Amino acid sequence: MENMIYLDNAATSYPKPKEVYDFMDEFYRKHGVNPGRSGYDATLETEEVVHNTRKMLTDFFNGTDPNRLTFSYNASDSLNMIIQGMVEKGDHVVSTNLEHNSVLRPLNVLERDGVCEVTYVPFDRNGYMDPEEIRKAVKPNTKMVVVNHGSNVIGTVQDLSAIGAICRDRGVFFAVDASQTAGAVKIDIQEMNIDLLAFTGHKCLMGPTGIGGSYIAENVDIRITRHGGTGVRSAYPYHLEEFPYRMECGTLNLIGVAGLHAGQKWLAKEEMETIHQREMALWDRLKSGLERIDGVITYCAGSSENRNAVLSINIEGWEAGDVGTMLDVDYHIACRTGLQCAPRVHFQLGTDKIHGTVRFSLGPFNTESHIDRAVEAVEEIAQIKRK
Q1: What is the pLDDT of residues 160-178, one digit of tens each?
Q2: For the whole prediction, is pTM greater than 0.90?
Q3: Domains along the chain with CATH numbers
Q4: Could you tell me if 58 and 65 are in contact, meaning their C-beta atoms sit under 8 angstroms apart?
Q5: Which H/E stretch holds residue 129?
Q6: What are the pLDDT digits (tens) for 99-114?
Q7: CA-CA distances (angstroms) from residue 133 to 98, 128, 130, 166?
Q8: Alpha-carbon distance 39 to 50, whole Å?
Q9: Are the C-beta atoms of 195 and 163 separated by less than 8 Å?
């Protein structure tokens, strides 16, 4: 691991800041008890960290009520609760070809089972959604629009403000998958008219795996889809309807919440905008270097504006998986190959026919030397086919 060049941050950020590791260890040793179940000092102190983390993230997303910031396993978990809690028999849903399977599969099941109809809007040649195309897709029975804020395949970041305004104008709920953007670019729930936001903690928010969450706006009456313990009003025979309990069931992943807490503090100290600018400068360096190599194909890699530091490529004559294996084994460079759990992106690009792409995704701890080494490695692999 010491010699590995890690360029797979869209899968999970690695390494985490030292402050995250240290706080998780300290917190769990001192406060690894169950919050909200008893009244002794340790559980009250634990609950204080949980509540403070809710408040930090609510402020971070410009929400209004920390109790409506709820925790889950990850974004996929939250998106399942959002989709299953909102969509009813006879509804229509608008989504996009940029979606991850965390959106596609729940929608596919509901459509297969005759619960709803789904319309998927394609992206343009640069990888962006035209908000007007989303407007055109809305029908009288459209319940919700679900949009991936930042693509995990091509890195493009969508204009949520424009899409949110259309949703508000048409009277439909606006749900956002912020897996790739929460902690990387600004998300303003109120300004963007977001009704339901799903996020994960282990990517740009710099927390550990196994923690994520959602923010549900006050105008949204989402159905309860899980039932169990809350530690509150135990004699009541049904799951509690008030937030945060409506979206949470059983004991929280406390060490995950602690990691999110520390990650938020680290982001505030380092400044999210500064981190993103640094990552995009490295992305520009990577893109420029790779596009000079004969046989390298990049996808939707235009301007560095309105995107994350994600770049997908292929090398003519090579399978993406073989390139990834060589990068790993011969050059100790970690990246992601294949369809990246987002098949509709590849269907539209045509890369599904060649088994996907090689994806590089940069993070806060990458350096210029990492980028230069990746470019050199790709060039050497590309030259093999030309000999």
Answers
A1: 999 999 999 999 999 999 9
A2: yes
A3: 5-16+271-386 (3.90.1150.10), 18-269 (3.40.640.10)
A4: yes
A5: none
A6: 999 999 999 999 999 9
A7: 14, 11, 5, 10
A8: 15
A9: no
